[in-house]
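This section describes the prediction task in plain terms. A model, or a person checking by hand, is given the sequence of a single protein chain and must write out its three-dimensional structure as a string of tokens. No templates, partner chains or ligands are provided. The sample shown here is typical of the held-out split.
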Amino acid sequence: MLNKIDIEHIKSIALEAGEAVMEIYEKDFEVGYKEDKSPLTEADTRSNEIICSELEKLYPNIPILSEENKEIPYEERKEWEHYWCIDPIDGTKEFIKKNGEFTINIALIHKETPVLGVVYAPALRELYYAKKGEGAYKIMMNEKNLKNAQKLPIENSTLNIKNSTLKIVASKSHLNQETQEFIDNLTSNIQHSTFVSKGSSLKLLMVAEGSADIYPRLAPTMEWDTAAADAIVREAGKMTYRYDPTFNIENSTSNAPLVYNKKELLNPWFVVQ
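The expected answer:
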């Protein structure tokens, strides 16, 4: 199935959704709230309509799981070999704040593993993409032209707590006590560490591109929040690992990767490195 997917199509869909989102972003818009009290804007709905409609036209036999669509029972989902995992706008809070740190996320999942991902940050004009076996890339865009794609990681970044410096990225809107304690413990024996807070799936992408060494997320996220960026992380030679009390920072191969299409779509705590 993967070899039948043209990633150029998926990039084009993300760019089209991004244009529609920016039209709303640049004007006054109303903010509603879903049953779980999370914010919802016209941009979330419009982006979702564009992405789902285009994917259904191009790949009618691949089911779609989206944050903004009706919930699909696990009894149906568990039979899926492949499916699209969509977050029309990841970082709606950042969208509302108009700080630019929100993304459009489209992932293809094979069973429990993300194998293709496209993430577009329309306000920042940054496009990231990856397809299993073909590498991960970033394109910086200007008003008219696409510049050359940069292969990820752009910067060399290897996590070793014995190093004298460590670059950490964490959530801008969800930095809780557990995450702060993890960071404090991690840096207790580090001579120099830098900390950056960032919105949406951009945090995973900072690890993928090498501008951060580690991203701990000891707080709730959903599968669609991470799937597309996780595909890019993995193809860049990094990994998104489940966190548990035995989590080993220095021996990452002993940690279990994040998996998808679980009965419960809530992600466990995780660390990207």
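For orientation: The first strand starts at residue 31 and ends at 33.
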